Amino acid sequence: MLSSSSKYAVNAVLYLAVHSNDKNKIRAKEIAEAIKLPSPFLSKLLQSLSRENLISSSKGPTGGFYLTKQALNTPLIEVVNIIDGTSRLEDCVLGLKKCSSEQPCPVHYSVQPLKQKFRKELQENISVFAEKVKNGEAYLFV
Amino acid sequence: MLSSSSKYAVNAVLYLAVHSNDKNKIRAKEIAEAIKLPSPFLSKLLQSLSRENLISSSKGPTGGFYLTKQALNTPLIEVVNIIDGTSRLEDCVLGLKKCSSEQPCPVHYSVQPLKQKFRKELQENISVFAEKVKNGEAYLFV
DNA sequence: AAAAATTAAGACAATTAAGTCCCAAAATTA
DNA sequence: TAATTTTGGGACTTAATTGTCTTAATTTTT
Question: Measured from the CB, is B58 under 7 Å from any atom of strand C?
Answer without folding.
Answer: yes
